[in-house]
Automatic annotation (TrEMBL):
The lineage of its organism: Bacteria, Bacillati, Actinomycetota, Actinomycetes, Micrococcales. It comes from Microbacterium croceum. Residues 2-100 form the Formamidopyrimidine-DNA glycosylase catalytic domain. This is DNA-(apurinic or apyrimidinic site) lyase. Its EC number is 4.2.99.18. The keyword GTP-binding does not apply. SMART domains: Fapy_DNA_glyco, H2TH. Residues 298-332 form the FPG-type domain.
Length: 332
């Protein structure tokens, strides 16, 4: 499932390429035909991400809410204006938080996480993207416009130069402003939304009153927004915290450390497009990690392999119908 960093990157993509423009909306698949007809011809006003959900505001006090879920993805085509605050495998990686490493050339990710062309469930994208800092004529290079529909597209949004195709979302619905605010109110704090200090306090209060295992709480979107299976496993390891510890039994200083780590990791994820959770890497190690998920994490997807710290075999179990990876010794 796409985690919070991906959804924030999608929102930034929409902000630069769709906000302020008139939308042409359709549902090639037909499952969102009525909603697309309502959206068609409206101007995109604003966009925001909260956790794993994106909200696109259009004129007339109408919001489009999209939750990608396990299988959803946005595919982009046409002229893509690049957000200079985020990096891409299709362009310069830019400054990172790993010892100030500065990588000048593209690093291609084998897991499909880092792409301007497709953000969401990993897939081999066939759409054509041309990055640009200023618009150019699409037909100068003979690009077919609009691009052909590929697969089951729930919603297609078009401007005069950019296309966004939504496939396989868990939710794609229209909301009034009141409905949108009610949805957001049910979500836990997101480090990139709202007051930072209050966000931390909300998280601390929510964890302190729960008997539920901390591994489950980190995945509960009403407790904290945006954390998924990868970040959950990595954050628990980084704090050397037993995933089965009840929330109310976790020391407050550790709960605060979890939150502050999430603030940091989310920022890295939004910048790079990767769920980078290892620290103090050399430039060579960082390059390898950005290119391959296997070199990017402490415990995630490493069941049966030795812990990178103590050598104990990484355990795998199911909790809350999701896979949990952890070190039985470091996190005893």
């Amino acid at each position: 499932m796409p985690e919070g960093h991906s959804v924030h990157r999608i929102a930034r993509q929409f902000d630069r390429n769709f906000v302020g423009k008139t939308l042409s909306a359709s549902s090639p698949q037909g499952r969102f035909a009525e909603g697309a007809a309502v959206l068609d011809g409206r101007t995109a006003v604003s966009v925001q991400a909260v956790g794993k959900q994106m909200f696109l505001e259009t004129e007339g006090d109408l919001w489009l809410r999209v939750h990608l879920g396990l299988y959803g993805a946005w595919d982009f085509a046409g002229e893509i204006l690049v957000d200079p605050t985020i990096a891409s495998a299709n362009g310069r990686m830019g400054q990172t938080n790993q010892r100030g490493t500065d990588l000048d050339e593209a690093i291609l990710d084998d897991a499909g996480e880092n792409s301007l062309a497709s953000i969401g469930a990993p897939r081999r994208t066939r759409v054509h993207v041309r990055m640009s800092e200023q618009t150019k004529g699409l037909h100068d290079e003979g690009m077919e416009w609009p691009p052909p529909v590929v697969g089951q597209v729930r919603l297609r949004l078009l401007t005069d130069i950019t296309a966004a195709d939504l496939r396989g979302p868990t939710a794609c619905v229209l909301q009034t402003p009141e409905e949108m605010l009610a949805t957001v109110a049910k979500l836990g704090p997101d480090p990139l939304v709202g007051d930072p200090a209050e966000n931390e306090e909300r998280f601390v209060r929510a964890v302190a009153k729960k008997q539920t295992a901390i591994a489950l709480l980190l995945m509960d979107q009403s407790v904290v927004s945006g954390i998924g299976n990868v970040y959950r496993a990595e954050m628990l390891f980084r704090q050397r915290l037993n995933p089965h510890t009840p929330g109310r039994d976790v020391r407050e200083e550790t709960v605060r450390a979890l939150w502050r780590d999430w603030v940091r990791l989310l920022a890295i994820g939004v910048e790079t497009g990767q769920m980078m959770t290892m620290d103090d890497l050399s430039a060579e190690e960082y390059r390898a990690a950005m290119a391959s998920r296997d070199d990017r994490h402490w415990v995630y997807h490493r069941a049966g392999l030795p812990c990178r710290v103590c050598g104990t075999e990484i355990a795998l179990e199911e909790i809350g119908a999701r896979k949990l990876y952890w070190c039985p010794r470091c996190q005893a």
